[in-house]
Here is the input.
Amino acid sequence: MFTVNDYCKEQFGGKVYKISLSGGMSCPNRDGTCGTKGCVFCSAGGSGEFSADSSLTITEQLKKAKELVRGKYKGDKFIAYFGSFTNTYAEVSYLEKIFYEAINDPQVVVLSIATRPDCLGDNVISLIDKLNKIKPVWVELGLQTSKSETVDYIRRGYKNDVYMAAVDKLKRVGVHVITHIILGLPYETKEDMLSSVDFAVKSGTDGIKLQLLHVLEGTDLALDYKEEKFKTLAMDEYIDLVVSCIKIVPKDVVIHRITGDGPKRILISPKWSEDKKRVLNALNRAIKLANL
Ligand code: SF4
Here is the structure.
């Protein structure tokens, strides 16, 4: 398995620490452009509960985050990560301002942008192209699944071919594309989930983030869960799924994540995922046992 740590070691000579930043953007799936209710699993924090205070400038957010991690990270290389909501959903002049502010920090070695494939117009791609010539840009796309019934259920708001076209556009300008896939979405079988991973790989993604489905308070997914319309995964089921997914990912595709950070304060299920250390240890043991 080609982990993100291996990749960073290869690219930057060692461990790189990720800093979550907030550009204060919204999402077309919430403001009425393609939907008002958002994806069915998405909480009020826009799938980025750990981001910084958007009332601060990017420089201030970076400074504050670096101070906070000083005790646990001794290195001086950081990933500036815009993770919550849709981080290309604004005027290009604004995006230019915040992204340049991030990469102008000499300790920032990567600009990482999470967004939707339907928010990558030509002007955004050309900005990303310019930025990528200065420092590496990673773009993270929330595919979540490629099964059309689930796409409708989760209210993702774009079709699979939009994702494929976005990967293509990003790869043409040499960007490292990461695809986000959720394991355990309602009514999906193991084969469905493996098929989503295979779809992302065949579309040309450079990296994969596997995320356990979290049922969060205040989401429509939570309503269905409380009505017992579906069950969340047990820990051993999740571990088996992750191992099976990694088996079908080619060795040159970077595995950026094998679990997720469910915000404990609003996490309804699965509760076992709160013990992240235990889950990660069990996952790493299973991956080792499978010789991956
Ligand atoms: S696209 Fe992202 S931010 Fe928007 S509703 Fe879906 S998960 Fe939330």
Summary: The CA atoms of residues 78 and 108 lie 5 Å apart. Residues 4-289 form a domain with the TIM Barrel fold (CATH 3.20.20.70). The first strand starts at residue 17 and ends at 21.
